[in-house]
Give the backbone structure.
Amino acid sequence: MTHIPSHRLLVPGLVLVLMLVLTGTASAQGHDPGTIELTTAINILWMLLAGFLVFFMQAGFALVETGFTRTKNVAHTMMMNLMVFCIGALGYWVVGFGLQFGGVNFTFPEVGTATAWSFAPTTLGDWGNQLSHWLIRIGQFGIAGGSGFMLEGLSPVSAILAFFLFQLVFMDTAATIPTGAMAERLKFSGFCLMGLWVAMFIYPIIGGWVWGGGWLANLGRAAGLGHGAVDFAGSGVVHMIGGSIGLAGAIVLGPRIGRFNRDGSANAMPGHNLPMGVLGTLILFFGWFGFNPGSSLSFVGSGRDLAVTAAVNTLLAGAAGGVSAMLAMWLFGPGRRPDPGLSVNGVLAGLVAVTAPCAFINSQAAVLIGLVAGIIVCLATFALERWHIDDPVGAVPVHLFNGAWGLLALGIFASGNPATDGWNGISGPVTGLLYGDSGQLLAQLIDIGAILITAGGLSYVVFRVLNALHLLRSEPAAELQGLDVPEMGMPGYSTADVRMPGGRLTQQVPAISTSIAVRVGK
Amino acid sequence: MTKKIEAIVREESLDAVKDALRAIGIVGMNVFEVRGHGRQGGVELAWRGTTYHMDLVPKMQINIVLSDHNVERTIETIRQAASTGKEGDGIIFVYPVDDVIRIRTGERGHQALMYPDDIDTRRSG
């Protein structure tokens, strides 16, 4: 018999102990207080880290939008992307979070065959009776949350604070989308008001309908439609809301001066910095690994399965979107070239489309969803141009059209991932049309309609009012000059060190000029 | 007596032209980034699926002031270095120059254009 040194047994032994601890963590949830603490800590840590990744997407948006606009609007576009976060964060803290999640922990009474149900994420521990008050609620249908304004009374609960951070960065992703569609002709004052409108009202209210236990999420329990509106990470809540607001803004603002000719033909207005656009896209792709996988709100047990499925599907759909948009332009585009601008949009389109279904589908569906997204983004770009809607960076084709496609794709391709059992208080996993649940597709269609009408329609009205007050569209002279100097007071790029009065060598210091001449070797 | 050559060439030809001119002893030149078009009227480009016409194409302009008798040789050198045989190779203009004054010494005319190892000293040597 071979003698095995005792230290060789150490590693397998440790692995065995670790496995016992980890399986114990998963199976003993809700039993041992120490295990509960560990589970909650892991889940909150995962959500926080994912939230930090989502925050970094602001940098991606800033680079894509600025790269796709012209040199004369660089300071203005960058400033919008900086301030939309700052303004939005404060607005969301004041009322947004409360409207969105003030009723998420409210327990709806049983209805039909569905049991009593609270939509608060149980993976983040017990929230007691926090966030359980609706401001407006009609029976089973929550309209607007009514607690948690300015985080009043929530500060000691770290799970809720982390949840607030996570939801805030999602809101700011939605808020920064319209700035792209409205770039190069939006007054800065109008932009500030737009940021408050998105962060305080329109995003939180619609977001609450889907994620805060509102009426769309409850379509399953209260109206028998699948699991109600399901949106894992926000194809609808974040992207379609942002895209709808962007479309409303682009329509009210009208096209940039010179974008369309009298005979109806369009003029290209090339962005000034493609490397910025590509770098921004890669940063967004990276951030998306927090956006989608982090939306599991847990990394223990079924949460881990959701997160990993989401990560892989996100990767595949983004790649597929880029490939199909590139090929579409290469084979059929007017220039017969692999158009970099639309390839950038194609990657983002695939990512947006897979955001809702990422945890509910298999990888074949993810690739298919991405491939279709890349085609949609090209067709929508041409359609907008034909309709004379000017969207400088392609925010509407990417976020509105593919946000809707993502919600729809979930209703078609959701394949019954066991980790989604019991979603929105309905027993059984989430399945789409191809797997036998047509009610789920109907719920998704209602979700699409509700977002388009509410986010797009109400924003259209708000923008019309702002424009009538001369707060939205920049003055023609300022637009032609570029918004940087008239609005920001400085150019985005100081192209040369301009010679300032007093900055030249004078007769009084001849020694300096001589010494320079000596130093350069004359 | 004295002439100015204004050669407008492709951006990517500049280095070849510069080296060829130095090789024959042209030691002074000014270079400008310019935009323009000739007979072909610009190029077609695309941005996010929309093609557009760029009529003013970026080019490099080289200015050289030199004595009459060196003009033909210099022109031929520029042509050889800048020619690809395709549209957009550029154009050369030649102008008369009234006078040349070297600021440091006050020399004028042909004197002001002379350098050690320039095109004339090489030719005589």
Notes: Residues 33-67 of chain A form the longest helix (35 residues). Chain A touches chain B through 20 residues (CB under 8 Å). Strands of chain A lie at 107-108, 117-118, 134-138, 141-145. The domain at 37-488 of chain A is CATH 1.10.3430.10 (Ammonium transporter fold).
